[in-house]
Write a structure and sequence with these properties.
Elements lengths: L8 E9 L4 E9 L6 E8 L6 E3 L5 E3 L11 H7 L4
Antiparallel strand pairs: 1-2, 2-3, 3-4, 4-5
Length: about 80
């Protein structure tokens, strides 16, 4: 039996500029029948690694971030499968 694909809904995204080209995108994400959660992604205008930070502070490097394109709001949308 094939399970249907469950996609999250991005309720809102906010960009915060940092130093030396670094910036973050905070996304309010909701999966069906779950509460809205905030997930922060930190990256750079110069490329390189992207770190995902959950509400409880857990940090995880995103594997091969380039597969979602240039880091920014649209990158976050592609990460969650919106585009």
């Amino acid at each position: 039996m094939v399970m249907p694909q469950v996609k999250p809904v991005l309720k809102k995204t906010v960009v915060h500029n940092g130093l030396a080209g670094q910036f973050s995108v905070v996304a309010a994400v909701q999966y069906p029948e779950e509460e809205i959660r905030l997930v922060t992604f930190v990256g750079s205008v110069y490329g390189g690694p992207v770190v995902m930070v959950t509400e409880n502070g857990h940090q995880e490097f995103v594997s091969q971030p380039g597969r979602f394109g240039e880091f920014g709001v649209e990158w976050v949308r592609r990460f969650f499968g919106e585009n």
